[in-house]
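Why do we care about 3D structure at all? Because function follows from shape, and shape follows, mostly, from sequence. That is the central idea of this module. The next example makes it concrete: a single protein chain, its amino acid sequence, and then its structure expressed as C-alpha cells.
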Amino acid sequence: MAKGKELDEFELSGILGEHIKNSYGYYSSELTEARRKANEYYFGEAFGNEVEGRSQVVSTDVSDTIESILPPLLRIFTASDNVVKVEPVTQEDVAISEQATDYLNHIFNKDNDGFTALYTMFKDALLQKNGICKVYWDDSERVERETYENLSDDEFNMLIEEDGVEVLEHTEYISETFVKQKEKAQKEIDEAGDALAVADAQEQLDALETPMMHDVVVSRTQTFGRVKIEPIPPEEFLIERQAKSLKDANFVCHKVPMTRSSLVEMGFDYDTVYELPSENKEQYNSERSTRYRNVDDDYDRTVGDRSTEEIIIYESYIKVDMDGDGIAEMRKVTSAGDNGYTILDNVPVDAHPFCSITPIIVPHRFYGRSVSELVEDIQLVKSTVLRQVLDNMYLTNNNRVAVMDGQVNLDDLLTNRPGGIVRTKAAPNQVMMPMQNQPLSNQAFPLLTYLDTVKEERSGITKYNQGMDTDTLNKTASGINTILSQSQMRMELIARVFAETGVKDIFKKIFELIVKYQDKERIVKIRNNFVPMNPMEWKDRCNISINVGLGTGSRDQQLQILNAILGRQLEAIKLQGSANGPIVNLNNIYNTLARIMENAGLKDVAAHFTDPRIGMQNMRPRQKQPTEFETVSRIQTQQKAAEAQMNYENRLRELELKYQRMILDFETKAKELELKYAADIDEKAIRRASLEQKGFSDTNKQMLDAATKNILQPEQPVSSTTIAIDVEPDQRK
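And the structure:
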C-alpha cells in the first residue's frame, strides 16, 4: 500500500486555522452571544429597552436560582473526604485500590484546590451551558534564590556540584578563626627561647594550608512534577462544531492570553515571539468584557513595555495525519497570531487534557442546556411586570390633575409640599379634577406568583427546600414531602450527570497522569500517617468509579438508617457472642460509624474512631528487645563461627592442592618410565607397574582421608553455642 504525502508546517498551519475559525466558541459566534446574555442576566444588568423617567428595576431570578442550586450540589461532592473511590480488579489488589483512593483524593484536595475547581466548574455549567476543566502534568521548573555565608571549601564545593545550582554571587576570604589562631601561634614562637625549636615550629606554621571561607548567592532550579487541575473560562475553550463529545472531537483548543515574557521563559524563540501581533479584539471579547464590566472598562492596557503585552496563544489538540500513513494521530500544536497561523510547537500526545460537564444533556450534541436558559425569560417578564407595577403605584400616588385654564395658579399646583396652598379663582371642584389611574397590583401579584411557580417547576428549586415559605405549617406534610422529593430528584439527577461525566473524567486523567509520569516514590500524609506512594505499581491493576455523596434532602433519613443498622450490628454481636463473628465484625461497625460521621458533616473520622486494622496492630505484644550484652555476644559468636568456617575451607583447599600435585608428579614419572623402557617392558613388567601405580594411589587416598578426618574431628570438641577454633589446626598445642 502506497504511503500518502507527509504534511509540512505550512499545510498544518492552514488546517489549524480553518479548525479555529469554524469551531464552537470562536469570536462572534451564536454561542458567544448566548453566554454573554447569560452573564448580563446573572449580574442583573439592564435590558436596553429602558425609558428615562420610568422604573428600571431588574429581577434577579437567574442569579437567585443558580446560587440556590450550588450549595446542595457542592455539598454532595465535598461532604465526604473521598470524592472518588478506586475499585480493585482482583482480590490481591484491594490494598492497592485503597492506597490509590487516598492518593487521588489527596492530589485533588491538597495538591490542588479541589473545592474551588468544582465550584468554578459547576457555576460555569449552570450559567453558561458547559463547565470546562483542564487536567495536565505540570513539570515546569521553579527557580529560587538562596544565600549562604561562612561556607568552608568542602561545603562550597558540595553546594555548587548539586544539580540545578548556579552561582550568582561569590565572595572568598580567609577564615577569621584561622587568622587568630595563626597570630597566637606566631606569638608563642616569638616568645620561645630555643632557636632550633623556633625554626621547626615556624616551618610547620608556614606549611599550614590557609582555609578559605565563602559567601555565595545561588539560584536553584527545581522541577516539581505534579498534576494540575485548572478550571478555564468558557470563552477560552474551542471545539469543532460536529463533535458530539470530547471523546470523538477531532479538534479542541485552549485559547489563552499570555505575555511575551512568559512565552520566552517557556523556551520559545525570542525573535518569533516578538514578531507576533497583539490582538486586543480577540483578547477582550464580549464575554470577557461582560464578566469584567465595571472593573476594567477604563483600564489602559497599553503599558509601553512589549514584554508584558498579551497575545493570544492557541493550545490546540488536533487529529491529523502528519506522517501520511492514512491514520490521524493526536498532536498538540501551540500557535499564535491571526487565527493561530504561526506554529510555535508541534508534538505528538496521547490525549487532550479537557473535561466537561453540563447540567442538562442534549443527546448527540456537545453543548447542553444551562439553568440560566430555563429562567431568563422568567426574569425578563417579571422585570417588565415589576416595572409597570412600580410605575402604576407612582402615578397613583401622584395623580395628574385636570384644571381650567386661567382659573388655577399653576405654580401653587406644581409645588407639591405638605400644607401647601393652591390658589383658585373659583371653587376647586369647579376648576380642578384629579385624573384617576387604575391600580394594577390586583392583577400583577397573582401573575408574579404564577411566574415563580413556573420557575420552580423548571429549576427544581422551591421555597420549601430553601426554608423560605412562611405558610409551610398550613400545608400537609405529605404534600410538602412530595414537593421536596421531586426537587431532590432534580438535584440528584444534576449531581449524577456531573459525577458520571466531568468529575469522573477528572479523576481518570489524574490516575493516568500519575501512573505515566510519576517515576519516583512520594511520601504523603494520609490519615495522620506518612505513607509512601508509588503509582507505577498500580498500572492495569485498578478501575475507577465515582462515589457520589448523598443529597442534602436525604441526609437526615440516611442518618436514621445508619443508626438503625448500627443497632442491628450490635444485636448481632450479642447473638454470635464475639466481636468478630460470621455475621458482623469490627470492620463492619467501623464502616458504619465512619458513614454516620460523614453524613453528619464531620470529615476527620480518625479523630473519633480507630480503624480496627490499625488498632489490632497496636495491641499486638512487641517482641522483647535483646540487651546490649546479648547483642554483642551474638555478634561475637557469629564472627567466631565465620572465622572457623573460613579456616576449615582454606585448610581443605590446601590439602586438595597437595593431593593434585602428588597425582600430577606420579603420572609424569610414569610417563617418563614408559617412554624410556617401552621396548623392553614385557607383560609381567607392565602388570607390576600397574600394581605399583594402584598401590601408590591407594596410599595417597588414605593420606587425604586421614587429613580430612583430622580437620572435621578436631581434638577439642565444639559446643552448640560456642566455637573453639581460634587458630589454625596445625597451630594447636
